[in-house]
Design a protein that fits this description.
This protein is mainly β. It has helices spanning about 75-90, 145-155; strands spanning about 10-15, 20-25, 30-35, 40-45, 50-55, 65-70, 90-105, 110-120, 130-135. β2 (about 20-25) and β3 form a beta hairpin. This is ADP-ribose pyrophosphatase YjhB, NUDIX family.
Length: about 170
């Protein structure tokens, strides 16, 4: 972002709240680009004892993750997670557990993650290239993004770092 969206003046770096921020250079305008993180919801979806892993369109063939998406205006994180499960997998689910809130600094996101129990036949939504169902002991968490939520889910199942499965990690 180079220009103020309110008055079109150049933005300049200033220290505000002890952090560098982009602020409008015009003395008549008080616009500050705060660059706050975007809220994201994630669901570790369980169907008949298996965990659903998804590969989004455009991801490399071996990169799988869990259902995730942006929180929309007017919905709670729980509603958002269940909406994403419906949109991406065609399943109605119920929240079983809250796994945690995770910072994903690389994408400037904060992730609200849940364990979701769902029933029915999984269908691949428009955003996905592929879906696979694995027993929890075959799932291996990754280090960033939704990976810490997967690690927490597995830990609560007594699986620690999981059973050494060979599933690839999400970016």
């Amino acid at each position: 972002m180079k220009y103020c969206p309110l008055c079109a003046s150049l933005l300049e770096e200033r220290i505000l709240d002890a952090r560098p921020r982009l602020a409008c250079s015009s003395p008549q305008c008080d616009y500050v680009f705060w660059n706050n993180p975007t809220p994201v919801v994630a669901a570790v979806v369980e169907v008949e004892g298996s965990i659903v892993l998804v590969r989004s369109k455009g991801w490399p063939k071996k990169f799988f993750g869990v259902v995730a998406g942006f929180l929309e205006a007017g919905e709670t994180p729980e509603q958002g997670a269940l909406r994403e499960v419906q949109e991406e997998l065609g399943l109605d689910g119920r929240i079983e557990d809250f796994l945690g809130i995770y910072s994903f600094f690389e994408k400037n996101q904060v992730i609200f993650a849940y364990h979701v129990q769902a029933e029915g036949q999984v269908s691949v939504g428009d955003e996905l290239a592929e879906v696979k169902l694995l027993p929890p002991e075959k799932v291996r968490p990754w280090d960033a993004g939704t990976g810490p939520a997967v690690r927490e889910f597995l830990s609560r199942r007594g699986l620690g770092e999981a059973g050494g499965g060979s599933e690839s990690r999400r970016p």
